[in-house]
Structure formats: structure tokens, C-alpha cells
Amino acid sequence: MVDRVVVAVLGPGRLGETHVAALARLRETGVLVDGRKVDVEPALFGRNAERVAELAQRYGLHRTSTRLDELIDAPDVSVVDNCLSNNLHFEPLMRAIGNHKHVFAEKPLTIELHEAVQLLDAAKAAGVQHGVIQNMRFGAAPRKARELLEGGLAGRIFSANVLFGYMVPQTVLNRPTWFYKKDEAGGGIVEDMMAHFFDLLRTLVGPIESVHAVQGIAWSQRREPDGTPFGVEVEDLASVGIRFANGAVGNCFASWVRRKHEEVPTFQIDGEDGSLYFSLQRLWRQTQAETAKALFRYDARALQPETLDDWQSVEVERRDPFEVQLELFLQGVATGRPTPGLPTWEDAVVNQRLIQAAYRSVAERRDVRPDEIPLGAPVPAR
Ligand SMILES: NC(=O)c1ccc[n+]([C@@H]2O[C@H](COP(=O)([O-])OP(=O)(O)OC[C@H]3O[C@@H](n4cnc5c(N)ncnc54)[C@H](O)[C@@H]3O)[C@@H](O)[C@H]2O)c1
User: N or C: which end of the chain has fewer CB within 10 A?
Assistant: First the structure.
């Protein structure tokens, strides 16, 4: 049992700041383990000194560095939390494991599946704890959904649907442009968003047996915020059909060129005994008995009310999901025993294999099972 955990966040970008903010709150409260308070101290690496100074001031950071290896090598750092762009996850994490640090990373753990496997093997061999952010699992409504499903609300699940999308204009103003570049991102919206959706659906519905994906590129050229054009190398919309091992069917539609008009993402899970409909923050349920009271009869000529009135709104506990997951991970680090049930690099390997199965399905226009994707070798380009 340790009294203090220094967590080095790598990367002061959007998600690096999200992690630093969560850790700064945990610094205020401490992490409680068996009634004892363990101190948390966030530290930050960023290559841009101005940006690092800005975050240090905003979150009261005492430890910062503009040299990537400095915090990874520092003897008092016990956790390295990698929030750099996807192509910069592997090497710093390998170095951290070599230094016997516990390791945590943004999703996707790596671009290449064989690298995720290598990282997992190295972390296991070094005996360090490993985690990957799957913030959707810890969102207020998905957490409650899991509890209700485990309590049997839906019974045998028939189907699961995910709908996600918002508009990124041709001049990319509302997200970093590296997401459109294969070297840095690995892939497009399949790589980026299915890392969330496959993971969440696996944990809510069950193991995924096969996937069948179609995808599109909205513009083959986009522009940097300053107007400089660049070629788009990855997909910005996709629809993935899913067959679950328990017989349920699923679909995830995700798009960065969709004009948003509802909370996103939304999820619907329908089962024999009931259904759940939820976003990350709000949740509704309807049992089969409630459905039976107002059975819907389809009439294509009639105007249908668009309403959740006959669904029950369920109260959820809203808390920053990054903070929830980091707190649970750090409790494991403090006690030396990984907190059970958290997303590990084993999960990251399963998720990455599914992502690569989806890309193969696009290329070969067929259902692909994850076990068709070899774990050990580089997978041919997407
Ligand atoms: N969990 C989520 O909901 C979620 C959402 C968005 C992004 N992400 C993931 O978070 C990670 C970061 O994404 P982001 O949106 O914060 O991107 P970002 O561009 O805002 O941040 C990336 C950071 O990496 C730094 N960086 C890039 N190249 C570097 C280099 N060569 N040397 C040193 N630093 C370098 C940048 O300066 C920046 O600070 C990615 O893995 C992404 O997939 C997760």
C-alpha cells in the first residue's frame, strides 16, 4: 500500500487536459482505499512549453516537462498515462513498462493489433497494472444500463443499436486534423469511434462473433483551419453490422458529416422482457408489461407521435467518467491489486481485433470474425 501516486500525463491536448482535470480533482479529494486517503499528484509532459504552462496554471501542476522521456524515467512517477495521438502510444508505453511504471492510455491503445499484443505481453511480464480509457463504460447512463441489464431488465437481448454523428465541415474547425491522416490516426471513424462502441456493446450485450462494415469518405480533400488543403486518407462515416455470440444483432452508425439534432451517441437495447434507450447522460426504460399496455400498430399513413412519454426515465448519477475510471485504476495501483472489472489491455486487444475485422470486412465485402485476424503479425494496410 502506497501513500502517494504521481501520475505523468503525456500530451496536453484535448484528452490530456481532460485527464489532468480529472486527476486535479482527485488530488483535492485523494483516492480512498480501505478508509485511508492516498494522495494523487498529476504531472504533465507537453512539447509546447506555452501550452504546458497554461495547463500548469489552470490545474495547479507542480511537475511538468517538455522532454518526453523525463517523466517516464523519473523514479517517483508511478503511473504513465498516455494521451498523445494514436501513433505515439506504443513507444512511450513500452519505455514506461521498462521502467516498471503502471501504464494507462487513451483509446485506441495502439494503431496496430500486434503492437497492442506486444504491450500487453510486456506489461504482464513486468507485473505492472495496465488500463485503457473506455470512458463510455463509466458514463452515467451506460453504468446504470449495465446495472439494469445485469438485473435482468431486458431478458434475452434481441438487438442493440448505436447512432452517432455530428458535422465536421470541409475546413476542419472542430477537431484536430490528424484524425484524417493515416500515419497518425491509423484509420478514420471505425478506428476512433468503434473503439468505444465495440467495447461498450461487448460489456452490455456480450461477445461479438462477427462484424460487417461499410464506410465512406465525404471529401477526398479537406482543409486545415488556416485554409491549407490536405488529402483525406481515412473514412469519415461508417455503418457496422454486428452479430453477437448470444444471437443478438446490432448496428453502429457513426458519421462526422451528419447534421446533429439529438444527443449523441444514443443507444437502444431491445430484449424479450424490456428495452433501454440512453445517451451518455440520460436513460429511459420500458418493460414488456408497459409495452403491452399501449401496443403500437403500424400504419404508414398515420402521423406517429415522437415521444418517450410511455418510457420511464431512470435517474442516473452524473460524474466525470474519466475521473471515475482513473480513481478506480489508482485504487488498484495504491493497493497493489488491480481493481476488478476495469478495462485492461486484454480488452484493448479484443477491441482492436474487432476494429481490424471491420476494416477487412470493408475490403472483402463480407462478415469477418475477429479470430480471422492474426494476433501476432502486422495486418495489411486498411
Ligand atoms: N476517450 C475519448 O472520448 C477520446 C476523444 C478524443 C480523442 N481520444 C484519444 O485521445 C488521444 C489524443 O487525442 P486528442 O483529441 O486529445 O488529440 P490532440 O491533438 O488534442 O492531442 C494530442 C497531443 O499530442 C501531442 N503531440 C502530437 N505529436 C507529438 C509529438 N511528435 N511529440 C510530442 N507531442 C506530440 C500534441 O501536441 C497534443 O498535445 C488519441 O489517442 C485519441 O484517439 C479519446
Answer: N
* Closest approach atom of ligand 1 to CA 105: 41
Pull the grid cell for residue 41: 499528484
Whole-number Å distance, alpha carbon 106 to ligand 1 midpoint, is 9
Residue type, 50: E
Cell of 159: 438487438
**Dist. CA 326–CA 330, nearest whole Å:** 6
Does the predicted TM-score (pTM) go above 0.85?
yes
83 lines ligand 1 (CB under 6 A): yes
Atom 5 of ligand 1, residue of closest alpha carbon: 15
263-306 pLDDT, tens digit per residue, is 999 999 999 999 999 999 999 999 999 999 989 899 999 998 77
Pairing of strands 102-105, 79-82: parallel
* Rounded distance between C-alpha atoms, residue 265 and residue 305, angstroms: 22
Closest CA to 143 of 345, 274, 316, 277: 316
Domains (range + CATH), the chain: 4-136+321-342 (3.40.50.720)
CA distance linking residue 248 with residue 361, whole number of Å: 19
